[in-house]
Design brief:
- With 665 residues, this protein is α/β, with parallel strands linked by helices.
- Helices cover 30% and strands 27% of the residues.
- It has 4 domains: 1-105, no CATH class; 111-297, UDP N-Acetylglucosamine Acyltransferase, domain 1; 410-470 and 484-583, no CATH class; 592-664.
- The protein has 14 helices and 45 strands.
- A hairpin with a 4-residue loop joins β40 (376-380) and β41.
Length: 665
């Protein structure tokens, strides 16, 4: 309704002004005494107000509007706006608080971080994210529901022009090109002590305190999974998803941050998509596509022009960047899940690493293509040779390997997951790599002795006919690489295959007979942002987009959900294919199954023992006592190894495994 003359008189006596009071509309109950020293321009609609307090933790303010300038805004019920110097073209929803803001406005060409152009604009103003390569050749355009899987699909298949055209058109359809949209502050949001906010949408329960500049953004938030942005932050041209925490001087430009990710302590994130449940502090991250559960905490590390497939950790001093150790800024790096470059490791682009590659401290002066998963890569600078130990994690650091899977699962804080994430280190993607690694090691060993595939490799292996160290080509450019402990690594790979097959089958609802009726081939699985798609499923997705069966990003996301529902069956088929590979058979016999079940029990016992053994080393090392007066003091501070929660959890996993295996067989 319009204001009464009495209400206008009260407002003016309280030092409020308007260029036309007839354009100020209010709802009942309306108390003009709750508005003071404020000016109103254009159409301003004010919801219900009562002389009551709004509280956010220990921050308490009155409902109402004081010391503010309001231009063409809709202010819904029970809102507090105090000391906002300039508020223009916003919808402020109920129970929200705006306090001490310098400038907060929405322009008539606002896009809220989405990569489109508005009527009358040139294409060159369109926001893009130059993923994975600094030369812009893999750039994508952000949109509100973008997942890491979408970014992977769009940035990978660049030679497929029709696919690229379709994905571009899907993005343009996500927001109207019409001008004049208002910004929105959703209900129960708190925004205070900020300097500049321009063309930003805020989700429900969003908390922003002390930001320097927020421009062209959508900041998603939910009441049960709120996003928080803190002091000194500057965000431009991006999308922040729910549950994110961004604090203490962070700078981010042209980005998408997925659910429950954290940016802290001056981190720089530019031209990148950061996956769910990831944390970046202090460092520099430019032109990257990073999948979920990435950790990077050190001030002197940087990551540039890469595809990192999650469950990764960047150590201090890690120098991973294309234009810092190559002649041009067009190099790339691709690393599978579990990528861990160690302290002060420096890589020469271009590089590709298999899953769970651990890189020891050192300089790696040539390009690398390392296809052996779970390996340790080190550099002997004296002899200028690179050394690879296959299956290192399985043989020497089982505690960290097993804990990594459970840790990433427990740290998944998402309450509304948009895409399933595979956390197990033994999964269809790594299993394919392991099988290929077995074939590779076998072929290289036979080649080293001038033998062929027709020779009985197993017999020769048992007779110790092979060299303990293989020298191979094709891993490092211009150099041969040494493979150490490859025989132990090969045995470890076979153990991993057997254990994966059995643990997958006992957790799959389908029987072996039902699975064997399917086409069970050992196929490549692609990592779509943490979700694994079989090669067939990935091909079907791309073809469905190109032939028009899939018409939007929403339908692509529905396809991900459909694939998620098929995943247990696909894993079961994959497990059968692994057993076919191990027993060199297209049909599994009863003897085959009894053999693999027996081996799996032994392997599970080995895993449990190795979890304890690799942890007890920390306690058996005498130098671990040098800072303590006694073992009792050490245990009081660090805890006893016998009480380690993960070791206890590992024992329980073993018991559950034995029980399921007994019931299954």
């Amino acid at each position: 309704r319009h204001l009464t003359q009495m209400e206008i008189d009260i407002l003016e006596k309280r030092l409020n002004t308007s260029n036309d009071w007839s354009h100020v509309l209010v709802s009942d109950p309306f108390d003009p005494y709750l508005i003071k020293s404020s000016s109103f321009y254009g159409l301003v609609r004010i919801g219900k107000m009562e002389n009551k307090l709004l509280r956010f933790h220990d921050f308490v303010v009155n409902q109402g509007i004081t010391n503010s300038r309001i231009i063409s805004c809709d202010i819904q019920d029970y809102v507090a706006i105090h000391d906002v110097k300039y508020l223009s073209h916003y919808i402020i929803k109920k129970y929200s608080i705006l306090h001490r803001i310098g400038e907060m406005q929405t322009t008539n060409h606002a896009k809220f971080g989405i990569g489109i152009v508005k009527e009358g604009e040139q294409e060159n103003v369109r926001v893009n994210i130059a993923l994975r390569n600094e030369n812009m050749g893999r750039r994508i355009y952000p949109f509100l529901s973008l997942t890491c899987g979408d970014a992977y699909l769009w940035s990978t298949y660049r030679s497929d022009k029709l696919l690229m055209e379709k994905l571009d058109s899907f993005t343009k359809a996500t927001l109207s090109d019409k001008r004049g949209f208002y910004g929105v502050v959703e209900e129960q949001s708190v925004i205070k002590e900020c300097l500049i906010i321009k063309d930003v949408n805020f989700g429900k329960g969003c908390y922003v305190k002390g930001a320097n500049k927020l421009k062209n953004l959508t900041i998603k938030s939910e009441l049960d999974q709120s996003t928080q942005i803190g002091e000194g932050v500057e965000l431009v041209n991006g999308i922040v998803n729910t549950g994110c925490h961004i604090f203490y001087g962070v700078k981010a430009v042209r980005f998408v941050i997925q659910d429950c990710a954290n940016l802290k302590y001056g981190a720089r994130l530019i031209n990148s998509v950061l996956g769910d449940n990831s944390t970046i502090s202090c460092c520099e991250v430019l032109n990257n596509l990073v999948f979920p559960s990435h950790e990077q905490h050190h001030n002197n590390s940087f990551l540039i022009s890469s595809l990192i497939m999650g469950q990764s950790n960047m150590a201090a001093g890690a120098n991973i960047g294309s234009n810092h150790n190559s002649r041009a800024s067009d190099g790339e790096l691709i690393a599978g899940r579990g990528f861990w470059p160690a302290l002060s490791s420096t890589l020469k682009y271009d590089c590709r690493f298999a899953s769970f590659t651990l890189i020891a401290k050192g300089n790696y002066p040539n390009e690398l293509n390392l296809k052996l998963p779970f390996c340790l890569l080190s550099s002997d600078m004296k002899d200028d040779v690179r050394i690879v130990m296959p299956a290192y994690w399985w043989m020497y650091n089982m505690y960290a390997l097993e804990r990594n899977s459970l840790k990433t699962l427990k740290r998944d804080r998402r309450k509304h997951p948009r895409q399933v994430i595979e956390n197990n280190y033994l999964a269809p993607d790594t299993i394919y790599e392991i099988a290929k690694a077995c074939d590779y090691l076998t072929a290289e060993a036979l080649k080293s002795c001038n033998l062929t595939q027709e020779d009985d490799f197993i017999s020769l292996l048992k007779e110790h006919k092979f060299l303990k160290v293989l020298t191979v080509k094709g891993i490092e450019n211009k150099k041969e690489v040494k493979l150490i402990k490859w025989q132990e690594g090969l045995i470890a790979y076979y153990q991993m295959l057997c254990y994966y097959a059995v643990i997958t089958l006992i957790n799959t609802p389908l029987t072996i007979a039902e699975l064997e009726r399917e086409n069970c081939s050992l196929q490549y699985f692609e990592n779509y942002g943490g979700q694994l798609l079989s090669e067939k499923q990935s091909s079907l997705l791309k073809e469905s987009i190109k032939n028009g069966s899939i018409k939007s990003w929403d339908e692509i996301h529905q396809y991900y959900k459909q694939v998620e529902g098929q995943y247990q069956k696909e894993k079961g088929k994959n497990a059968i294919a692994v057993l076919h590979y191990l027993y060199n058979s297209t049909k599994l016999s009863k003897e085959n199954m009894e053999d693999c079940f027996t081996k799996a029990k032994v392997i599970r016992r080995y895993i449990e023992e190795q979890v304890f053994t690799t942890k007890i080393k920390d306690y058996d090392n005498q130098f671990r006592l040098v800072t303590y007066n006694s073992e009792e003091e050490r245990d009081a501070i660090l805890g006893c190894v016998e009480d380690n929660s993960f070791i206890e959890e590992s024992k329980q996993i073993s018991l559950d495994f034995y029980e399921k295996l007994s019931n299954y067989s």
